[in-house]
Fold:
Amino acid sequence: MTIRLAAIKALAWLAIAVAIGDMPAAASEEVTTNWAIAEFGTPLYEKGIEHWPYANPDAPKGGKITLGAFGSFDSLNPIILKGDWARSIGLIHDGLMVNSGDELASAYGLIAESVEVSADKSWIIFNLRPEARYHDGTPITGGDFKFGFDTIRKHGRPFLKSFYKAVDGVDVLSDHRIRYRFKTKHTMKPLMVVAVSSPIPRHYWRDRDISKTTLEPPLGSGGYRIKDLKPGRSITYERVKDYWAADLPVNRGLGNVDEIRYDYFRDATVMFEAFKAGDIDFRSENRAQRWATGYEFDAVSEGRVIRRLVPDETPRGIQAYFFNLRRPQFADRRVRAGIAELYDFEFIQRTLLYGQYRRTTSYFPNSDFGSKGEPNAAERAILEPFADKLAPEVLTKAFAPTVSDGKGRIRRQQRKALDLFKAAGWTVKDGKMVDNKNGKQLKVEILMRSPGTERLTAPLVQNLKKVGIDASMRLVDTAQFQVRMDDFDYDMVSVALNFFPPPGPELRSYYGSAAAGERGSANLAGVKDPVADALIEKIIAAKDLETLKAHSRALDRVLLWGHYVVPMFHNDQYRLAYWDRFGYPKRRPRYSHGFPTSWWIKE
Structure:
């Protein structure tokens, strides 16, 4: 499963607000009013810009494109745990504010014309634009945010709820003025979270049950609406011609394509063949072998299909095999460390990845939030109060996986693994790795949903078998995969997590003890570590960027040495392939390749 950054837009519309009554601030309280906010420092762009520098305000509007999506969907309701929702659903919703593609933690007014922030960061007021409206023409009001919060609090998926634990409530001061109150002070993180909230229309859901899956296109407020869908097969969005926010600076030059269709495929090879045939217009290639050898067809050599490598500066979440600590065979850290020793990245890099990837050695790869080398003074100062609860390596060593020669011979790693298994109470008898207490063989089944993951996992499975472990792979379809994920029904699972920079409340769901036993949470490994819990809260409460970085690096070390995952790899480039029918600005956003937001179809 991949929880990708594209999903952020789909989640951003899930509003959070509750009307508790008008509570005026003290007259003497210092209040800052602006059109934009930043978690740290000041926003990059000042009020008065006409458009983003990575947008072309003269870009032509029109045309249709078709994109490919892997898997299927059976719902258009991303709020609830049940169902597999269409990940592109965020296209139809707007938020109070919108992020800049050149910054990691800033927000600029969209539905909100301006914001007022208290000096102690204990509340924020959003002044809504009177012209903001849904696709049916109904005005957007503060009451819609209350409905959104009530819905998430009662029916929302655990991962969504985890974002808003710091929200104390919202005062609906008028139809176009709302105030969020927070349990925290002097930190911008909760304010940044609610800034991308979007309204859920009360009048639309009055006669519908939002706690259930649905395939009826929901009412939205964004630049696109659903035009057509074939459940599980395709979904088509059309540009809203009278979109109320089309000429705002944050939108000018964006959303240029009239119609965007997503065709769903259950087989990645079939999806690529559809691209080669011209049935799909654009793809971001995620398979090294295909990028190296699969683009040798006429349309490429003739220049009708273009391939580009674009630097990717986007901070990434970790891609790894997650152990399920709810299974007794993984209770001992040494067992997990032993299994990690048998992952031969260098062999996989040489034979399967064509040298295109970087080994992941952090929970925050491709970013400045992860640990590097040995702990520095600031990190040690954070960790030393917890010394009696930590593995000794956390305070003294750099986390560095064993490096092989890439030829598939890993005797040194096998010896280290066998020593770790022996210390944890496991012994090889008659060719089987068995528990000294009960004689049961160590069993590991790795769950996955993408056929492409099988070939990358096979070398690990083979190495596990060589030391007597009963290892296997289980490939399931997307619907079954989601159910098993929600129920934590796996030994190990191959997953790439999303990253919401700078790291914040999502860490509670990823690695917090409270989420470990909550069905549907994102704590896939079942981490229950009081030190991790304490560091997560310090990250969320950080008042400056350097403090946040120091604590995120300390957390990174705690998690890495806990051996909750077998880290895999990541890429620092976008591999783009598309048919030569697009135009795009000369300057792209720093943290995105810009497609399809700022691209257009050439006349």
Q: What stands out?
A: The first strand starts at residue 31 and ends at 34. The two ends are 38 Å apart (CA to CA). Residues 545-561 form the longest helix (17 residues).
